[in-house]
Every structure is written in structure tokens, then in C-alpha cells.
Description:
The structure holds two protein chains of two kinds. By secondary structure, chain A is an all-beta fold. Chain A contains no helices and eleven strands. In chain A, strands 2, 4, 5, 6, 9, 10 and 11 form a seven-stranded mixed beta sheet that branches. In chain A, strand 4 (about 30-40) and strand 5 form a beta hairpin. The N and C termini of chain A lie far apart (about 35 Å). By secondary structure, chain B is mainly β. Helices cover about 0% and strands about 60% of the residues of chain B. Chain B contains no helices and eleven strands. In chain B, the strands form two sheets. In chain B, strands 2, 4, 5, 9, 10 and 11 form a six-stranded mixed beta sheet that branches. Chain B has a five-stranded antiparallel beta sheet with strand order 1-3-8-7-6, with no helix packed on it.
Amino acid sequence: KAGVxxxxxxxxxxxxxxxTLSCSPISGHRSVSWYQQTPGQGLQFxxxxxSETQRNKGNFPGxxxxxxxxxxxxxMNVSTLELGDSALYLCASRLTGTGDEKLFFGSGTQLSVL
Amino acid sequence: xxxxxxSPEALRLQEGESSSLNCSYTVSGLRGLFWxxxxxxxxxxxxxxxxxxxxxxxxxxxKATLTKKESFLHIxxxxxxxxxxxxxxxxxxxxKLIFGQGTTLQVKP
Lengths: 114, 109
């Protein structure tokens, strides 16, 4: 079974630009979450999607947005990039309806904002 | 406010030298506590889930335990391949998963 796939693996952008990251969950997983990981702040929750609806949201500005498609694939968008947005963005999927909340993570997208 | 604190931040061990990592938490209703392992350049990999005080889980050289305020990850006779960052995360009644800052473990041969 294929794992969680994130593309692209690396991205370099400049301040003010926008970026879209993509995530394909494990087959059968309908919940997709996004996290930002930085050396200073650690892993911080961005949002979770389930059946194309945002289920939960972290404390990030509105420049961070996401969506989920009918095939459970998800995209995350960051507009008007700032230097502080440089981070590893991780996507995770999980199987719902089993009571098991464990997440399966992708390898992440390393975003550098110059 | 829900909070998760891991200690120590970094730990260096000699191969075979057992030790424990700590995860202290304050949450409004614990729905589960998770341990993950993260290798450089990769996403976290699931290790254990603990749901209630007194619960223990084991996998090879790792053993996770849970009390009402903290969890420990015990590493028995570690090997260099156990070197990684170990992350603790708590799932609270808010529905969010809150991660600690992690403990970076280095095991020297």
C-alpha cells in the first residue's frame, strides 16, 4: 500500500508570492491534516479536512488555506509569502471510524522563502 | 490551555546505555497520547498510542508508559539505529493534536 505522498519535495519562493502544496493520502483514508514544522516552534497544526470539509483549524492567519477533493487528495495554499513561512510542511492522513487516531505522515515539502 | 512539554531536548547515549524520555502534558480531557519517531528529512513515523493511566506498550527496545500527567518512553540497550527525534503528541477534547518539541536522541557506538 502506498504511503502519503507530498509534492513537491522542495520549493523556493520569494516574499509576496503564493504557493500550493499537494498531498495524496493513503488509499481509504478520508481525513487529511496539515502541519507546519520549524526548529523553533516544532510541529504546529494547520487544519484538518474530512470529506471535503474543514473539520478543525489551528491558529494560523488567513493566508493559509486548504481544500480537499472528492478523491481525498488535499492541497494547501499560502498567499503573500513571508520569510517566517519557511518551514517543512507535513501532510498526514488517518483512517476514520475506527477509534484509532494515529496519523501517517508524508515526507513533507520543504519551503524556503527568500 | 493544552500544553505538551518534552524533556530533555537532546540526549546522548552510548550503545547499550538505557534511558527514558519524558512527556508532560496538560490537556482538557485526554483522548490519546501518541509517540512518533522522526528521522532527518522524513515525516514522523507512528510508534505507540496510549489511552489511559497505567497503560503500557512495547516494541523491540522501546516501552511507553502513561500516568495522569506524563508519559515516558523507555529505551533499553539502545543501538545507533535508534538515533532520531522522538515526538510526543496529545489528542484532547478540542479535537486537535498537540505536539511537544521533541527529544533528539543520539546513540554512539
